[in-house]
Design goal:
886 residues; alpha+beta; Neutral Protease, domain 2; binds (3S)-3,7-diaminoheptanoic acid; binds zinc ion
Length: 886
């Protein structure tokens, strides 16, 4: 019976409905016959009834498959012996143990969704997480079914000389007809989402790594031959990650070979398939000439992230997709601490928190807010979010903070030992930490269950007679969809007390015999309102709270601009120094916004200029930190601080402040820029990166000063640069200046780099972010340029994504043109690639926060999408949640 024609409305999956699988797969033998248009897949599954599972029929998932034949224990099954829908194959009346042979055909060249098996240029590759494997063959495509895979690939030898899959290569051979074959075996049981296959004419860059127990592992990066000079940085990063995971978590690699393949068409950054990571080319390929410091940095962390998944994700995987943060939160936390160890820890923390506050806080305050462990979804692809990843990482980091470093390591050792080869839950993770250390994290687990960003209010009082300092912490968490009220969270609050000279004071709580020496201590906040009494405090202190951003919360702590300015230069905690500076700048900018709205004259804050001068001349401060401290918050972040964002006033206020700081401190910016302009070959290391970032910040102020000569300096930097960091910094500044020089700079940049996709994406992105008035027209023009294809996710993100997310003035244009543009593109994209389409919708996440007129326009854009027939589940889920009543 074939019911594939029946229409399905998007189904909601609930955590509460979880059931163990009815059948398990012990072994999966897959044979792929690759052909240009059609690929034949023969899957032989050794299956058995799950003794712990429910009494139910065997259901295999499958989408967009042509079923050629089905055999049970060698006998062909007729059409009346199974049932088929558009997404499942149901086989009733099965014995306890059996073998299924399923032959299907798929059409990778028709696959524009980039899920399952697809072409990226001439490379055939796969993406199976979360539910892509069902587009390759019928299978119980859920992470709690773990099987041992053996994969044979047969294909034309000329066209596909390289054929890869997971695990170790076992055997290979050639046929007389010009085809060849290879067999890969992965001894580690894995869920289908970690399956991978790659075939193409690829160059391989090799290296090796000797593990702590002395095993030699071959490292291979496969790339299009034209990119063979771009692999070194990724290989170095991989070796650093392998070593770090041994040293820090005691985790060793477990196969003879570790492979990375770079492809141009990829829906996200990279994928941790067992032994065969597949990467978006932009997240792996780099040379100093083509990649910026930020690219080098990101590549190092993504290579590490995917590598770390080998343990946190692959050896121990997720029971179901509600547990996604089990692997993603933990692995992000691991890659963040890797990057902190290898580079500047302070800068790493600032960047992580900046990202969290600007993206995750917005998500947590919007219509898609969900807990780190969600309890329902329509389309799981929509839940690869900043909440699952970045907030999930903060949650694991807080566990580490609460129990301590050694204790945390004991806990992760127990977790990996106890659950090796299993598919488990976030509860299992927490339980392992608890059991290893005899701690109680039951209240802490609310961080996994409750959505929304808690708000902490801090009140302090000093009694000069009793020498007592009182710190009262009150917590509240706003309602989120489906969660009207919240229970108090268990929050680690890192605090320090400073006296008037900026010296740290000892901290002794009322019931303690001894004072706590040292700059910072962790208070454990568990109540809705809680008071901490510090005794023997000799003089009135200023409390520096939430040091290192010890919890993902919003802080309401009324400090005057002078107190912020004091912390900005005196705090012992680098993160809080930066944060105090940002809060001071935000206060000043919001006052300027109010002045603009009331037509008051704008005045520059001399307090801020003085502090900037002190920072810029502080010889002891890391230049990377100076650069961060002198960087003004983004317009988007400022918008998030206002009840009703005023995009134009924010832009104007920020420009005013920047220009006036630049004019006041021009000499100093000039001097610092010149001092940092030492000719030196590019090297990727924390010190050199710090110098380049400060140099570029100085240049951006110099250009902002409005002095036309500074544009010449910008052009000179572009001309002299031997690396993309300095070249792109120059180009970014040029694109906001109308005139011939701008057009020439853009033209010659493109001419020089048009063969290089990674660089061309930067060229698209800088133009999309331009503040010049005709930017949308230009973006539309660029969509017709030879450099752009709507089928390529990197192009889409660089041009459309950049315009909609990082060009607030034009995206939020009062006439609604930005919103209409986005809606049109989403409808086109949804037919091609639903995941990318759904991602683009994120630009409208905060639509209800804007003024009445803009809200109406954004609503119209959302409705124009919602009213389309045949929307993908991806876009359907987001658009309906955005439009749902508040
Ligand atoms: N696990 C993948 C993400 C898969 C996304 C699927 N829509 C990459 C990562 O987080 O490492
Ligand atoms: Zn990941």
């Amino acid at each position: 019976m074939d019911t594939s024609a029946t229409e399905q409305s998007p189904k909601v999956t609930l955590l509460a409905d979880y059931e163990q699988p009815a059948y398990l797969v012990d072994e999966a033998l897959l044979q792929f016959d690759l052909d240009s248009a059609k690929t034949r897949v023969v899957s032989t599954l050794t299956m058995r009834k799950n003794p712990q599972g429910p009494e139910a029929d065997c259901i295999l998932d499958g989408e967009a498959l042509t079923l050629v034949s089905l055999k049970l224990d060698g006998k062909k099954l007729e059409g009346n012996q199974f049932q088929r829908t558009t997404s499942q194959l149901l086989i009733p009346n099965l014995p306890d143990k059996f073998e299924l042979e399923i032959i299907t055909e798929i059409e990778p060249d028709q696959n524009t969704a980039l899920e399952g098996l697809y072409y990226s240029g001439s490379i055939l590759c796969t993406q199976c997480e979360a539910e892509g494997f069902r587009r390759i063959t019928y299978y119980p495509d859920r992470p709690d079914v773990m099987s041992v895979f053996t994969v044979t690939i047969v294909a034309d030898r000329e066209k596909w000389p390289v054929m890869l899959s997971n695990g170790n290569m076992e055997d290979q051979g050639v046929f007389d007809d010009g085809r060849h074959w290879v067999r890969w075996h992965d001894p580690h049981p894995k869920p289908s989402y970690l399956f991978a296959l790659v075939a193409g004419d690829l160059h391989v860059q090799q290296d090796s790594f000797t593990t702590q127990s002395g095993r030699e592992v071959a490292l291979r990066i496969y790339v299009d031959p034209e990119n063979k000079h771009k692999c070194d940085h990724a290989l170095t990063s991989l070796k650093q990650a392998m070593k770090w995971d041994e040293d820090t978590y005691g985790r060793e690699y477990d196969l003879d070979v570790f492979m990375i393949v770079a492809v141009n068409d990829f829906n996200m950054g990279a994928m941790e398939n067992k032994g065969l990571n597949i990467f978006n080319a932009a997240c792996v390929l780099a040379t100093p000439e083509t990649a910026t410091d930020d690219d080098f940095y990101t590549i190092q962390s993504i290579v590490a992230h995917e590598y770390f998944h080998n343990w946190s994700g692959n050896r121990v995987t997720c029971r179901d997709w509600f547990q996604l943060s089990l692997k993603e939160g933990f692995t992000v936390m691991r890659d963040q601490s890797f990057s902190a160890d290898l580079n500047s820890a302070a800068v790493q923390r600032i960047d992580d928190v900046n990202g969290l506050r600007s993206m995750q806080f917005a998500e947590d305050a919007g219509p898609m807010a969900h807990p780190v462990r969600p309890d329902s979804y329509i389309e799981i692809s929509n839940f690869y979010t900043v909440t699952i990843y970045e907030k999930g990482a903060e949650v694991v980091r807080m566990i580490n903070t609460l129990v301590g470093d050694e204790e945390f390591r004991k806990g992760t050792d127990l977790y990996f030992d106890r659950h090796d080869g299993q598919a488990v839950t976030t509860d299992d993770f927490v339980k392992a930490i608890e059991d290893a250390n005899a701690v109680d994290l039951s209240q802490f687990k609310r961080w996994y269950e409750q959505a929304g960003t808690p708000e902490l209010t801090i009140d302090t009082n000093y009694d000069p007679i009793e020498h007592r300092f009182t710190l009262t912490v009150t917590q509240a968490c706003p309602a989120t969809p489906g969660q009207a009220t919240k229970q108090p969270f268990h929050i680690p609050l890192a605090v320090g007390l400073l006296d008037k000279s900026g010296t740290s004071l000892d901290m002794q709580l009322e019931d303690e015999a001894e004072p706590h020496h040292g700059d910072t201590r962790i208070l454990s906040v568990t109540e809705a309102s809680q008071t901490f009494e510090f005794i023997n405090v000799s003089s009135e202190p200023l409390a520096s709270v939430l040091r290192g951003f010890s919890a993902p919360v919003k802080l309401k702590y009324d400090l005057s601009n002078h107190q912020l300015a004091f912390l900005m230069v005196n705090d012992k905690d680098s993160f809080n120094r930066w944060d105090a500076g940002q809060k001071l700048i935000i206060n000043i900018l919001l006052e300027l916004v109010a002045d603009i709205q009331q037509n008051n004259p704008l005045v520059l804050s001399s307090l801020l200029v003085n502090q900037f001068e002190r920072i810029l001349t502080d010889k002891k401060l890391d230049p990377a930190l100076i650069a961060k401290m002198l960087t003004l918050p983004t317009e988007n972040y400022l918008a998030a601080q206002m009840t009703t964002p005023d995009v134009d006033a924010i832009h104007q206020a920020r420009e005013f402040l920047k220009r006036n700081i630049a004019v006041s401190l021009k000499g100093l910016f000039n001097q610092t820029y010149e001092k940092l302009s030492v000719k030196k070959a590019y090297d990727f290391n924390a010190d050199d990166m710090a110098m380049r970032s400060l140099k570029n910040v100085c240049l951006s102020y110099l250009v902002a000063s409005g002095d036309p000569l500074q544009l010449q300096r910008c052009l000179r930097q572009m001309k002299q640069a031997d690396n993309m960091t300095e070249l792109l910094a120059g180009l970014r500044l040029m694109v906001d200046q109308s005139g011939l020089e701008r057009e020439n700079a853009l033209r010659s940049f493109y001419e020089q780099w048009k063969q290089d996709r990674q660089v061309v994406d930067k060229w698209l992105a800088v133009q999309a972010a331009s503040t010049l008035p005709d930017t949308l027209i230009r973006v539309k023009g660029l969509m017709k340029h030879e450099a752009f294809s709507i089928k390529n996710p990197n192009n889409v993100r660089a041009l459309i994504g950049m315009f909609c997310r990082n060009n607030p003035v034009h995206f939020h244009a009062k006439d609604g043109s930005g919103y209409r543009f986005l809606a049109e593109q989403i409808l086109v994209l949804d037919k091609l690639n639903p995941q990318v389409a759904a991602r683009m919708l994120g630009a409208l996440n905060s639509w209800r926060r804007y003024d009445e007129q803009r809200q109406q326009l954004m609503k119209q854009a959302l409705e124009s999408i919602a009213e389309q027939q045949d929307l993908s589940a991806d876009v359907y889920e987001i658009v309906t949640k955005y439009l749902a009543a508040e």
